[in-house]
Recover the amino acids of this structure.
């Protein structure tokens, strides 16, 4: 059997898990954005709605990139690399957004930008962690059914 490259999905199930994780993130962000922006508009706070929409888009991009970096590259050797890279991207994009907004558009900061970033950041974090746990649980149950460990060896 030819080993997969670090960036190649090895089975159709893993490709489906990747897509479902990204779709889950998109669905959570879309629903939360609709609720938050709708509340801001209904209260007549257009600056808050703009801040919420911008925070949602940037946090969604960060969470999606972190989700991809948490899966690729494959292999035990890259475990800490995946962890650090996904955490760095998830944190860096919202922080850079806050920095740019603070320096260039201070009116958005008064619209509650920090609170929206925190809300959307946590939503993405919880969704991605839940998705990863579901993926690991499926991987564990599949290996216990076949009687093989992750490296393909039979378990006693």
């Amino acid at each position: 059997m030819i080993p997969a490259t670090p960036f190649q999905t090895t089975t159709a199930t893993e490709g489906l898990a990747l897509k479902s994780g990204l779709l889950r993130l998109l669905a959570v962000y879309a629903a939360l954005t609709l609720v938050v922006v709708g509340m801001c508009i209904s209260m007549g706070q257009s600056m808050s709605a703009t801040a919420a929409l911008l925070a949602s888009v940037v946090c969604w991009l960060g969470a999606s990139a972190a989700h991809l970096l948490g899966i690729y590259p494959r292999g035990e050797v890259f475990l800490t690399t995946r962890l650090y890279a996904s955490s760095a991207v998830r944190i860096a994009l919202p922080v850079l957004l806050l920095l740019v907004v603070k320096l260039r558009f201070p009116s958005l900061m008064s619209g509650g930008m920090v609170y929206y970033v925190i809300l959307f950041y946590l939503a993405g974090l919880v969704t991605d962690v839940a998705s990863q746990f579901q993926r690991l649980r499926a991987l564990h149950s599949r290996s216990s059914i076949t009687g093989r460990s992750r490296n393909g060896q039979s378990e006693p």
User: Anything to note?
Assistant: The first helix runs from residue 12 to 42. The chain has a mean pLDDT of 79. DSSP finds five helices and no strands in the chain.
